[in-house]
Amino acid sequence: MSAGQLAALIAAVSFAALACVSVVVLIKLGRLLSSAKRLMTDYSGRADLLLDRAQAAVDRTNEQLARTDSITASMDQVTANMAELSGHVSALTGLARAMSAAVSTPLTGLAALVYGVRRATIVRRSVQAAALADQQRRRAAGTADDVTRVAITDGAGPAPAVQPVRAELAGPR
Length: 173
Hints:
It contains 3 helices and no strands. The chain is mostly helical. It has one domain.
């Protein structure tokens, strides 16, 4: 074997080894590309599902915004109605105050009159009851004579049994 043949043999073996390594690299590259294709297909399917969900959320949001707009419009109407009602109430307030004053003044006077008559009746009855009790006490005791009666009622003042009742007329102190 000559040097040329040996060089050719080395070149042929190197070429064969290089070809084998290239085949192995190409096979691994093919597997890598097929895995990448499967991964992209899965991601594409998931992305479609994700986009569908996002679109559904956007649609629901738009529906809620439409409802909110209608509620806001109805609230504007309610606000306008409340403002109108407030104006009516303000207009009627003066009339109500005047009617209240016109009705309450005579009723207050009537209530004071009834209270006074009632109080006077109670006081008069208590004075009469005290005088009657005093008279019955004197009869029961039998010690009262005409001179004692004159001395008690001769103008020097009311009878002693009547004084506490008259003090009640003055009211609480």
